[in-house]
Amino acid sequence: MNRLSLLLCLILVNATQALSVGVVDMAKVLFYFDEVKILRIEISNRESRYQADLNQEQSELDTLGKRINDPKTDEATRETLEKDYSRRMFNVQKKFEDYKQKLEEQKDAELEKIRQTVYKEIERLAKLKKFDFVFDAKQVYFGSTVDFTDELIEKLNRKPAAAPAGR
Known about the structure:
Elements: H1 3-13, E1 21-24, H2 26-32, H3 34-69, H4 75-129, E2 133-136, E3 146-147, H5 149-158
Parallel strand pairs: 1-2, 1-3
Helix pairs in contact: 2-5, 3-4
């Protein structure tokens, strides 16, 4: 049963009393919430640092490749360099995958903390405004609702930012 069906059932059951329903545009909240903007910048900076490290490794591999292909390199040295090249190439690929996974895990963990902050503020405002229910604005197609997205964003951005892990 989707949320809208659940809401309709509750309205029918409680037809004798009016329900107060609030809506929030979560996409807008997550776009304009300052902590999310900061997280985007931090993730971008981490990606840049990782990319710089990988570029350095690639540069070293390119230099090694030139030595391998240099006609002046003797056969025994070439074989040793090719083994070193293969080992280092594997390590660069592994490092890339590790960086990618680490970034995803960090981003997911920090976004979850942000979501919890948002949910707590939604709950606080919903209780203050005496809403019976709060739904994502994209899930409500019809009915009398109160959109408090902008107020939520304003309240969230006024609160002191919690220090996320890993900064």
